[in-house]
Amino acid sequence: MQHIILDCDPGHDDAMAILLAVGNPDIDLIGVTTVGGNQSLDKVTYNARSVLEMAHAADIPVHAGCDRPLLRPLEVAASIHGESGLDGVALPEPTRPLDAGHAVNWIIDTIMNSEPGTITLVPTGPLTNIAIAARMEPRIVERVKEVVLMGGGVHVGNWSPVAEFNIKTDPEAARMVFREPWPLTMVGLDLTHQALCTPQVQSRIDAIGTELSAFASGLMDFFRASYRNDEDFVDPPVHDPCTIAYLIDPDVMTMRRCPLDVETADGPALGMTVADLRGSEPSAQDCHTQVALKLDFDRFWNMIIDAITRIG
Ligand code: BDR
Ligand code: CA
Predict the structure, then answer these.
(1) Domain total for the chain?
(2) Which of the two ends of the chain, N or C, has the fewest CB atoms closer than 10 A to its terminal CB?
(3) Ligand 2 centroid distance, CA of 9 (Å)
(4) Model pTM greater than 0.90?
(5) What is the 3-state secondary structure (H, E, C) of the chain?
(6) Which ligand does the CA of 192 lie closest to?
């Protein structure tokens, strides 16, 4: 069983990550924390609570975190996720009040009060909360099991020619998180651009025939339109749940262990993740970071469809 904290900014694909985490029996989603990213903090926090409500998982706590990057103004991704951050679906009113306490404090307290090596951090938004948590309580770095994040790309960008949205939004935070010595898996665009919600996949989601499957399909309709209009994609890449899929079954993707760093200088490469792929692959003792490269498409979508089916 993997005990995870999902630090997210829902977001259509963040919502799919929540559904996969809630619906998979090997994942224990102990809490959701939110960060300003795809939309403002208040909007993404509402969305997280609403998606949990939709997934019959309102018992899972939600803590709101940082409303903007460390040094830069927040530039939201309304072109992809709409004005609400989850445009295209009706969001149920959350029944559970927002939990008190800042996300960063909750992340720290949760990790420090758990057995060492038992909590995995899964960031699927800008890395602001995680960077601040590591500074406020440096002991969390050796205490977490690992960090598995969606962000970056070795050979590809989406928010600039070379930078991905989550990293480019808060590059200083990303650099801090990448440079801490915890085991870190970067599930970036190289991998997530293979996680396409094709019409065949979406008809399998529709065939589940529940309110939740219709909700997920509505998310995918909007996401498809955004990616067609804005990014020249035929089918939308469903980035964020790839992190959870890796935790459920690492064989769903192939990895390359390599040193990783983040460009923070203003200019055309701001927010680029730089992977050192020279030479032979280092061992886990020598290198604490790895990147995901190749997705087992069928295995991935089977997990998502199974999770939505299980939730009912
Ligand atoms: C990432 O950016 C956000 O818009 C998505 O939710 C995902 O986390 C992809 O670049
Ligand atoms: Ca996200």
Answers:
(1) 1
(2) N
(3) 5
(4) yes
(5) CEEEEEEECCCHHHHHHHHHHHHCCCEEEEEEEECCCCCCHHHHHHHHHHHHHHCCCCCCCEEECCCCCCCCCCCCCHHHHCCCCCCCCCCCCCCCCCCCCCHHHHHHHHHHCCCCCCEEEEECCCCHHHHHHHHHCCCHHHHCCEEEEECCCCCCCCCCCCECHHHHHCHHHHHHHHHCCCCEEEECHHHHCCCECCHHHHHHHHHHCCHHHHHHHHHHHHHHHHHHHHHCCCCCECCCHHHHHHHHCHHHEEEEECCEEECCCCCCCCCEEEECCCCCCCCCCCCCEEEEEEECHHHHHHHHHHHHHHHC
(6) 1
